[in-house]
Amino acid sequence: MPALPILKLPIIVLIKILRLIDFEEVFPISLCSRKMFHLVKNFRDKTDPIRVLVNGKESNIIVSVPENGFIVYVAPMAKKYKTAKSVNINGHLVSIDRAREEENWDTYWNDEIQGIPAVYEHLSELLEFKGPPEVLVNRNTLWLLSYIEKRQGDNYHLVIGDISEEVCHFILKNYHPQVVRAWSLNDNFLIAQYTNSIESLYSVWKLSITLNDVLNTNCVELILPNNKFTESEIKRILQHWVIGGFKRLKYFCLSVRGFNMEDVLRELNHTRMTENREYKSESVSPTTFSDRDRLITRNDDVVASFQYNQLFGVVHFGVWPDSQGNQYS
Amino acid sequence: MTSPASSSEVKYLIESSEGNTFDVSGAALRQSNTFNAMFLNIGADGPIPFTDYNEATLKKVFEYCEHSVNEENYSGPKHQDDLSKWDLNFFNEMDQKMFIDVINASNFLDIERLTSYCCERIARMLRGKNTQEMIKVITLPTAEELEAKQKVEEKKAAAAKKVAEKAAETAEKTETLEELPVQQLVQTTRNKLTRKYLSFSNE
């Protein structure tokens, strides 16, 4: 292995090298020394947005950009790993090994509880991710939610997956995530009682939620692609918005059955959109509204785009301006 | 500088750190933004001194420039997998020292294509390596070495502190001695001498 003292190269060359380093190499190179940490932090390629999942269930942190990513596993120290080489992660001397999947890392901790926060702090300082982290916990790792809330208040996404109803109620009563993403949840789980405090609810699972629950929600975003609503129910929801209901609602995506766009919009003040516009929501990927979609105007002149996607049987509704302040003009 | 009719055939004399000179075509030299900024418009009387770099390095750099004269304009770093056989040979036949010298010279001459390929090559060398291997490649001390170094430094600092404290103590004593009135000092010295004399006479 040839040695290349890259720190002795001119800084312009070093910056070029650091910009060319693959995203999955950023973590191991940051552990080389404090100086490398700061060089990588300042000069790595920062064009791609970063997503972070703190996974208390699998005891790891997943960091990804659109086409790349890596996982840092936090495992208890076992005898056989004591001889492994150590690195300094946020002040802890930790054994580290490349995981079976090449781009991932196994770290071994004497105190596992310190592991995830230490790795998270290291990555947060290194990558300076702007977006809120997603947090997945189980019964044994609820402490992670306390850590995250202490660190950044309610600015995180709670991912609910494979936990008991009792634990789920406990979490939603005691913690306050801005966004709740339900990957799996009991069909009968009464989510409606929490939709006043949750800002965004996104469930890939069918939830126990009625039209009345929706009309009484205080959510900013409601994404329920597996809850079927009838044409008249959608009409009712839109009418409720037009007369000033849903004080905070900005975006919804709901599943529909037996849907006719014209019938739904008949009594509403609407026009056809004149151009394609991308609508950015807080919790899901952007929706592109096109000139086939409609623009509904509320009594106070606020406008919202409305789309029926026949292929997937869902409707999208976005109130302008979107989550990034983009206006419809 | 020689100057034949066609500008592409213009040859420039380059001077290396050893004081040796050699020819490089104008077309090849124009890949260097440093050259363009310094000499392109005003020309050069006599050899152009690039005397921070040795002849072997400069010849290697301009070998690359001569080869890529006819390549299309540079448009961002090329993936190493897309490099031609010639490019690969060019890089593979360099040892580590020459490679570093070429990067430095290429950076100074601001030859964007060559510098970028070199950088991409280094980034690629780090690919798939763990931290320890990276530390070896970029020749940094390991965490254990840093910790050991820190311990040695702490020990040194503690020892230095002890010495300083002792010195301060001695200084204090000296000061006390200096502060003694002259009469007392004379008396103390006399007593010492008397004791010494008595012990000597007893023998």
UniProtKB/TrEMBL annotation, chain A:
<protein>
    <recommendedName>
        <fullName>F-box domain-containing protein</fullName>
    </recommendedName>
</protein>
<dbReference type="InterPro" id="IPR012885">
    <property type="entry name" value="F-box_Sdz-33"/>
</dbReference>
<dbReference type="InterPro" id="IPR001810">
    <property type="entry name" value="F-box_dom"/>
</dbReference>
<feature type="domain" description="F-box">
    <location>
        <begin position="3"/>
        <end position="53"/>
    </location>
</feature>
<dbReference type="Pfam" id="PF00646">
    <property type="entry name" value="F-box"/>
</dbReference>
<dbReference type="Pfam" id="PF07735">
    <property type="entry name" value="FBA_2"/>
</dbReference>
From TrEMBL, chain B:
<protein>
    <recommendedName>
        <fullName>Skp1-related protein</fullName>
    </recommendedName>
</protein>
<dbReference type="InterPro" id="IPR001232">
    <property type="entry name" value="SKP1-like"/>
</dbReference>
<comment type="similarity">
    <text>Belongs to the SKP1 family.</text>
</comment>
<dbReference type="InterPro" id="IPR011333">
    <property type="entry name" value="SKP1/BTB/POZ_sf"/>
</dbReference>
<dbReference type="Pfam" id="PF03931">
    <property type="entry name" value="Skp1_POZ"/>
</dbReference>
<dbReference type="InterPro" id="IPR016073">
    <property type="entry name" value="Skp1_comp_POZ"/>
</dbReference>
<dbReference type="Pfam" id="PF01466">
    <property type="entry name" value="Skp1"/>
</dbReference>
<dbReference type="InterPro" id="IPR036296">
    <property type="entry name" value="SKP1-like_dim_sf"/>
</dbReference>
<dbReference type="InterPro" id="IPR016897">
    <property type="entry name" value="SKP1"/>
</dbReference>
<feature type="domain" description="SKP1 component dimerisation">
    <location>
        <begin position="113"/>
        <end position="159"/>
    </location>
</feature>
<keyword id="KW-0833">Ubl conjugation pathway</keyword>
<dbReference type="InterPro" id="IPR016072">
    <property type="entry name" value="Skp1_comp_dimer"/>
</dbReference>
<feature type="domain" description="SKP1 component POZ">
    <location>
        <begin position="14"/>
        <end position="69"/>
    </location>
</feature>
<dbReference type="GO" id="GO:0006511">
    <property type="term" value="P:ubiquitin-dependent protein catabolic process"/>
</dbReference>
